Amino acid sequence: MKEVPEFAVPEGFRSGFAVLWGKPNVGKSTLLNRLVGEKIAIVSPKPQTTRNRIVGVVETENAQVVLLDTPGVHHPQHKLGEYLVAEARAALETADVVLFMVDATEPPTPDDERAAELLNSLLRDAPRPVLLVINKIDAVSPAVLQERKLLYETLGNYDETVTISALTGEGVPLLLRKIIDRLPEGPPYYPLGTLTDQPEKLPIAEAIREAVLHYTHEEVPHAVAVVVDELEHRSDRLAYVRATIFVEKESQKGIIIGHGGQMLKKIGMRARQDIERWLGKKVFLELWVKVAKNWRKDENALRRFGYFVRR
């Protein structure tokens, strides 16, 4: 995988894996998208929106950083929760540097403490450099930021603390330099110009899920899975996508479809915009909604929807 054709590696070129770590909804996906410059990970105000481990690739003249975006670490309450935590642990095993992200708008919570404890435990036998990344500094005063910084630094032993706003980009170039400084020297892992190694259907499914999360109420979001049943590139200018939105209850199906199908129409319009930008062409999007009862607790259903729980 390290062989990249027609590329002369400059002396001192660095490459490696950086893992985004932390509780749900601290801005990991927003930072990934800020660094990569494309909307790779699903971004939503609802916690636990990142389900599949996302790989984004950042390139500079002298480095390639492969970013793994993990689901927010939490106590699993169902099979899907077990999958999310297992994915976070698996990502950590490949890390050259870890970015422990926290939220400047609040002091450390029990979820932050659990994430820190798990990180400290997993790195005890295989130490890796960890940067404490305090996000959302655009939303707090300097005095509050300093107070929160001191509190978060008590959660572990960190190489360095970096304060950023993933939303505005403040502090992100400095963070990237500090990540690169901690990577080993070596050729790139991916061909130059790579944004992500996700299968083509995955970003489409995630775009649809994000649209569902954007419009539906709290009852629905984490009971939603999306399967892209068909993707056909009909020409250089047009693609056909047929996808199924799975929920756990008939009532959730009704919410997503909406009165006269209006909610599903809004979801489709929002998702189509992201899919068209991803594919670089017009998209005809056909959406269906089906009920798969209690799928989050069913390992067979999880596998059918593209998840795999490591044992």
From TrEMBL:
Residues 241-293 form the KH type-2 domain. Residues 48-52 are annotated as: G2. GO terms for biological process: ribosomal small subunit assembly. Residues 135-138 are annotated as: G4. Residues 69-72 are annotated as: G3. Residues 164-166 are annotated as: G5. GO terms for cellular component: cytosol; plasma membrane. It is found in: Cytoplasm; Cell membrane. GTP binds at residues 22-29, 69-73, 135-138. Signal peptide: none annotated. It is a peripheral membrane protein. Monomer. Belongs to the TRAFAC class TrmE-Era-EngA-EngB-Septin-like GTPase superfamily. Era GTPase family. HAMAP family: GTPase_Era. This is GTPase Era. The lineage of its organism: Bacteria, Candidatus Fervidibacterota, Candidatus Fervidibacter. The gene is era.
